[in-house]
Amino acid sequence: MQFTGRCLNVLAGRVMPGLLGVFGVLGLTLGIVAAQTLEAINEHYLIEARYDKGQAYAGNNLGLKITLKTPASQSVPRDKILKLARYEAPEESNIEIKLVGNPERNTRDSYNQEIYTFQVKIPQGTEPRSYKVKLKFQYEADQTTVDREVDLVVGERMNKKLVITGGDSEPFVAGSRVIYNLNLQNDYRDYTINIHEIRITSVPAGLVRSITLGPIGEVKAEINARTNTISFKPFLSIRPIDKETLPLELEIGSMSTTNWIKGFGDSSKLVFDYEYDDGNERIIALPPQEAAVKIRPSDGTLLGAMFIGVIIGTGLKFYLEYLREKGVINRKGVAVFVGITILVGIVITVIAWAGQIQIIAFKDINLSYDRPVVIFIIGLIGALGGVHFLNNWAKKYLPQESSPPKET
Question: Cis bond leading into 240, ω under 30°?
Fold first, then answer.
């Protein structure tokens, strides 16, 4: 019986289901040494290349085995006998390859095997992509040669080839729902990225209460509401040098007491933890990536803070004036005084808020106008001090009670 192409298919049928069974149990896991079957040279030989893809990364030494298999039950005609004559490292790279020792010969699973062991040195800085190791096989009878190539799929452990960035967006309003476009960029030259999950947290914690994301094509997004983790079923694929945009609907947390006083500041950010594979049985989980975001209070919150400050300032101002001029101002005068004070406080606050005018009393303090407490202080100061500029006008036009005549 000759070792024909049918035999090659049978052998592949025996090997591949076993490998697929391992993948099914372990998933895409590091350390699985899959065989790459090279294009057949003649009907007598099956040539395989094996290496651990999980160890094929920059800065590492990799073991590569080239195995020539022939059926143990038959002899190979002399004019069909092959040997490995030469090998070449990938072009346009600094990858080095060398043969280690002499070929190993044995018989296993009813096949004679001739095994060549190589050491592949992948230097630091090697671009993660698919390289070609060139092999030259030679017929012993007539010295003719046949070229074959092994795909050396070099991966990475430190470089971020899945780049996550946030799209341009307006500042998020506390307590609202917003659309945030999350951009995913595959920077691999040769590999399709398969994203398994993305977990979204924030600095400070609690900025994002919940996340919603609809289906993306045929890919379904499942969301863990407790951890804000998006899992893709089966996975979200991005082709080499391509990108995908995820329109996330985020529920932004409400204002806390700390936010009223300190605001949200300029250090707010979304943090993305993610897991993906590079299409070559390598699961990659790198340090989180961050995207800065701007959070601000709602206009209603700021207006409320302004009115509270103005009303309190008005009350304090009137009480002080009342103590100083007790019995001098009549009821109508009180109403006019309070009305003018509130109006002046609001005007001064709006001018300071809209025009970003520095308050002299706080010129050495960095106050942000998106903090409710700042708007409150401006309203308070406006109500307390604003009437000072209208004192002369008020004394001229406010009706006052006349002093009782002195008894003679």
Answer: no
pLDDT tens per residue across span 144-195: 999 999 999 999 887 788 888 876 667 888 788 888 899 999 999 999 999 9
- CB 260, CB 238: distance < 8 Å: no
Q: Looking at the DSSP assignment, which residues form a beta bridge with residue 223? A: 230
Report the distance separating Cα 341 and Cα 382, nearest Å.
8
DSSP character for 5?
H
Residue 164 CA to its chain's centroid (Å): 4
Can you tell me the distance from the alpha carbon of 47 to that of 228, in angstroms, rounded to the nearest whole number?
48
**Both structure tokens of 127:** 């671009």
126 burial (CB, 10 Å; 0-12 / 13-18 / 19+) is buried
Calculate the dihedral angle through the C-alpha atoms of 104, 110, 111, 113, rounding to the nearest 10 degrees: -10
Contact 105, 137 (CB under 8 A): no
Instruction: Give residue 91's identity as a one-letter amino acid code.
Output: E
CA angle 266, 306, 259 (to 5 degrees): 30
Distances (CA, A) of 46 to 72, 119, 408: 13, 22, 134
The kind and range of the H/E element at 216 are none
How much helix, strand and coil, in percent to the nearest 5, is found in the chain? 30, 40, 35
Structure tokens at 356: 């970003």
What whole-number distance in Å separates Cα of residue 389 and Cα of residue 194?
Answer: 68
Q: What is the DSSP letter of 57?
A: B
Range with lowest mean pLDDT among 69-78, 245-254, 385-394: 385-394
Alpha-carbon span 238 to 188, nearest angstrom: 10
The whole-angstrom distance between residue 320's C-alpha and the CA centroid of its chain comes to 57
Question: Model confidence over 42-59: pLDDT tens digits?
Answer: 999 999 999 999 899 988
CA-based nearest residue to 120, from 95, 101, 85, 138: 95
The residue to which tokens 């949200």 are assigned: 264
Residues 6+ apart with CB under 8 A from 74: 1, 2, 3
Tens digits of residue pLDDT in 220-232 = 899 999 999 999 9
